[in-house]
TrEMBL record:
GO molecular function term, any single one: DNA-binding transcription factor activity
SUPFAM superfamilies hit by this protein: Homeodomain-like
Species this chain originates from: Amycolatopsis dendrobii
Protein's name according to its UniProt entry: TetR family transcriptional regulator
InterPro entries per the UniProt record, alphabetical: Homeodomain-like_sf, HTH-type_TetR-like_transc_reg, HTH_TetR, TetR_C_31
One Pfam family hit: TetR_N
Chain residues forming the annotated DNA-binding region: 34-53
Keywords for this protein: DNA-binding
Domain HTH tetR-type: 11-71
């Protein structure tokens, strides 16, 4: 980060670039995050991307971190709402799916496309070694939040069980995507509800 990024104006510009890059990442994957595209989305000069970031990798890393932390913050807010209102299994399942697949928009086709993009992005992350330390950190934070969600919902799970539930969701989603199922979230929801029902009984 350059010294200019530590001034109020610099911080605002850098934040705008990071937010723009995170939006592009969510919409089109890593290939969508390019200096020119980020600058245009942020409404800033092209040179600003190289002024505030030493490399495209640094910009991508900041975008991934911003996107991940935003989702975690949204999840924590939803968890607070869940524990004060509805603690039923369905509410728990929906919150877990929000954390693993992203929130629903109300448009089934758009939601299915968003899930596909999400999994493409996750797979592509593995081809970028520079992201591995950040992804480990985000994954740990996500697992901690999921553990808290299950605990506050009255169905506490151990680490091994959490890993199994996440794997079930991932498997259901991938199978649905392979079968060109228009509702991968619904498939994952059915699998998760069944698994939770079995763990209760």
């Amino acid at each position: 980060m350059t010294a200019a990024a530590t001034t109020p104006k610099g911080e605002r510009r850098r934040a705008a670039l990071v937010e723009a890059a995170a939006e592009l990442l969510a919409e089109g994957g890593f290939d969508a995050v390019r200096h020119r595209a980020v600058a245009e989305r942020a409404g800033l000069p092209l040179a600003s991307t190289t002024y505030y970031f030493d490399s495209l990798e640094e910009l991508v890393t900041a975008a991934v971190e911003h996107h991940g932390q935003t989702e975690l913050e949204n999840g924590r807010r939803q968890l607070d709402d869940l524990t004060t209102r509805n603690r039923g299994v369905q509410a728990t399942v929906e919150l877990v799916l929000d954390m693993l697949l992203g929130p629903q928009s109300g448009d089934p086709e758009a939601d299915a496309e968003a899930v596909l993009l999400r999994y493409e992005r996750l797979v592509a992350t593995g081809r970028r070694p520079y992201l591995r330390p950040l992804m480990r950190t985000l994954s740990q934070q996500l697992n901690e939040l999921l553990t808290e969600i299950f605990a506050r919902s009255g169905t506490p799970v151990a680490k091994d069980e959490l890993d199994r539930l996440v794997a079930l969701v991932d498997g259901a989603v991938v199978n649905a995507l392979i079968a060109v199922d228009p509702a991968p979230r619904a498939a994952a929801g059915r699998m998760l509800r069944t698994a939770l029902a079995e763990s209760v009984h």
